[in-house]
Amino acid sequence: MKKFLQSLAILTLLTWGGMFLYFYATGRIDKFLDPSFRIYALLAGIGMVLLACFNFLNRNRDTGACTHDHGDACDHDHHEHDHEHGETCENEHHDHDHSHDHQHDDHGHADSHDHAHEHEETNSGLAFSILVLLVPLLIATGYSKDSFSSGYLMKWGKIERQMMQMRIARDRVAEAPSLAGIDAADNPYTRDGIEGQKPTDADTPPSPDDEPAPTEGEAPADDWGTFTLEDLKNMVPQNDAGEFLLDVPQIFYTAGDRELMQVMEGIPVETTAQLMEETLNNAEGNRLKAFRLFIECCAADARPLSIPVEFADSLPDYTEMGWYKLFGKLHYVEEDDGILPIIKIEKIEKTAEPMDGLLF
Amino acid sequence: MDSAALSPFTDFCYLFLSILLEGAPFILLGTIISGFIDAYLPPGLIDRWLPKNKVVAVFLSGLLGAVFPVCECAIVPVIRRLIKKGLPVSCAITYMLSAPIINPIVVISTMKAFSSSVGQFSLRQNEAVEAYGPLFMTSSRLLIAFIVTVGVGLVVLKCRPSSILKNAVAPRPNGDDNGGHDHTHDASPEHGEKPNRLVLAMRTSMRDFIETAMYFSIGVAITAVFKAYVTEDLILLFNQSEVAGVGLMMVLAFVLSLCSTSDAFIAANFPVPQSAKLAFLVFGPMMDVKLVFMYLSVFKSKFVTILAVSLFFVIGILSYLWIRI
């Protein structure tokens, strides 16, 4: 039994190692882990296989050290026991023979027992461990589609958005940011952006260098304290039509930042995203949800960051969770006590999943 | 991908595998180190290195994990052996609680987990998108763990070992435990061969990996079920108030029984306040479902109960206050 379980433990380790190597070699791992973690998975796979092989090759070697602990599970004191190393001890961690002819009288067991119960527990524990290690792994590997269902994305996308709204609401209490004064019509950069023209000197806001020194009691602005269109252009590429190529998460995280919203209100944007039904604040039924999955470390922490996209009339024909290029103008709206970025769509184009379908 | 083929069950499989692929390498590393400690470190050595001043010894024990890193699953049997060999109980408990957090592997994994790349989406280049960045969260985790574990050690210093330890674990006057069946004999007459410590280390590593990975798999499965099937209303409960978030995250840490080498990856993006994440990261490696059962093999149940309740409140309060400070 002991040998069998030991072999099973080695086989389990080998299976795990093999599974890690399989995920790495087939590229499936790309759907699971951030690139920086993939090398760890490879090394772990190699390590597990080597460990299993080493233990297999040395399965009959005597380590010369008995590492098992017979006494604690039944909480009795063995110090008065006589040991007669004669009978076979079936513990997995040592191959030598010894017996347990105990004459202890300070616990509730029969005077003469041989600890077979504990060895059985050890064996059954190991068997259970192996079962727990193998069954879920093999089932999950077989059934995983390496992608999330729309229900999952809907649920966690809603949570992400509500979390953002809660954060904005908290900031509002502290700083009272609002959309007051943020209007595309008042945004000198908007017209420039829409026309795809370079900003004129008149449109260019004063650079931070030109700004007067902060007065006493006023916190000095840092380098990016005043966000300008030039800053945006320096950071974000534009397509031939002058539309800013922004990812959904970039747009998502501008909500609540007054300076960013002032610059970005009404600008033309192009973004590539998956489209889903919009279930929040969609009374007129002319909105969809554009989302991207952002992964920090592994798919389990994937965050479906989404923004609503609004169509002038009815919804176009679209494939749920399909990939689209979206063209339109970015606006900010107040809804549910929060501020939401929204793209008012002018055109959509079906497209293939980009190389960076998952954002890491 | 046919979206009809996707279901909460396939979500569960995807989630389960992703956490497993991410966390298992750290578990393997931890168990290999644990195997070498088991094979090459004489049990009395740590005790000899500890200063004679008991208070100073407790403080140093809180940092021992940095030198002898052991995860929470592996440390309980190690501690049981060290106590039998005469290591002061206060030092042993301090080491037991701190080592799963204050060790280099956990530092690296926490740093990795909280190295948020959300900043890449910020249009403000110098914005501290992660005001609670990896360094802050990692150092906070270490600091609070150190304060709490040393505090527990100092309290235990005032207690009689017999009121804490099970009889079978109580140290012998001369540190001899040969009769206690915790054999460490190098070569008995029956053995004949010279001890092969490398084989022992590798066997221990494999055994520890099987055991630890089992608990990890169970924790991962529970996490995956939670993420795949839980409703958003329940998640948002965690955010109803910060205090509730802190408490609920510690309950979650208790139930999930995650390994300290990989729990940060789960906490990092849980949509809860940072104080709740911090409480999760400090409380979990010290007290969870699997640890309760393991602790009961060393300590009396009354002590384990008091320890669990005390840790819950102390860590919760410290985490809540620390983020505010």
Search tags:
heterodimer, A: 360 residues, OB fold (Dihydrolipoamide Acetyltransferase, E2P), 7 strands, B: 325 residues, mainly alpha
Main sheet strand line-up of chain A:
2-3-4-6-5
In terms of quaternary structure, the protein is heterodimer
In total, the number of domains of chain A comes to: 2
End-to-end distance of chain A: 47 Å
What is the rounded Rg of chain B?
A: 21 Å
Question: Helix amount of chain A, in percent?
Answer: 25-40%
Question: Largest sheet of chain A at a glance?
Answer: 5 strands, mixed, barrel
Describe the overall structure.
The complex is a heterodimer of chains A (about 350) and B (about 325). With about 350 residues, chain A is α/β, with parallel strands linked by helices. Chain A folds into two domains: about 1-60 and about 85-105 and about 120-140, no CATH class; about 150-205 and about 225-360, Beta Barrel (OB fold (Dihydrolipoamide Acetyltransferase, E2P)). In chain A, about 35% of the residues lie in helices and about 15% in strands. Chain A contains eight helices and seven strands; from the N terminus they run ααααααβααββββββ. Chain A has a five-stranded mixed beta barrel with strand order 2-3-4-6-5. In chain A, helix 1 runs antiparallel to helix 2 (about 35-55) and helix 1 runs parallel beside helix 3. Mean pLDDT of chain A is about 75; it is low at about 65-120 and about 190-225. By secondary structure, chain B is mainly α. In chain B, helix 3 packs parallel to helix 6, helix 8 crosses helix 14 (about 275-285) and helix 12 packs parallel to helix 14 (about 275-285). Chain B is globular, with a radius of gyration of 21 Å. Chain B has one domain. At the A-B interface, helix 1, helix 2, helix 3, helix 4 and helix 6 of A face helix 1, helix 5, helix 10, helix 11 and helix 13 of B.
